[in-house]
Amino acid sequence: DAKTTQPNSMESNEEEPVHLPCNHSTISGTDYIHWYRQLPSQGPEYVIHGLTSNVNNRMASLAIAEDRKSSTLILHRATLRDAAVYYCILRDVRTSGTYKYIFGTGTRLKVLA
Amino acid sequence: DTAVSQTPKYLVTQMGNDKSIKCEQNLGHDTMYWYKQDSKKFLKIMFSYNNKELIINETVPNRFSPKSPDKAHLNLHINSLELGDSAVYFCASSQVYSNQPQHFGDGTRLSIL
Asked: Up-side HSE of residue B57: CA atoms within 13 Å toward CB?
């Protein structure tokens, strides 16, 4: 199973951009990179995903390295509500068409007012 | 409308008892999952069902038995509960053959006394 490594924790000031890194050196050609976050006492919430190209949505941007061995989740302006554990996950696709997520330890983001 | 709902939200019971957790999704997805998040916050997949058929079974003790009466429901029954079963259990759903994300419920916190 392909794995990801992330820093255990990061801090950011409110209203500033945050760059959350993720290494996935054993990624395979068909693995999508998914990012989720988990707020306290809630289930994981989808943030963004990509395969090769950089992606943007209303929540964040995802920058994927050319060799795909790393990626960075970018929160353009952190708010207090963005304080959460952020997970970088590789989607392991089964031949059945279903897939499972392999969660790592994630990065706990602290946002300072 | 809640997309993935689990009941109960909290479950406190004695060691040795049998309990069930229910999960329902109204997203029209055909695949559902159970994850376990232990005290160290590691999220690990347990089971996946696609159209009522077991697809993923990740070396979970056979005291845990998932049941899918239809593709919108996936229940988890646990026999002879042990102290180590204390955790938060998350249900999720997705659509097969799709790179769209999984949607998670808010979890059921199971505490064994």
From this structure: 12
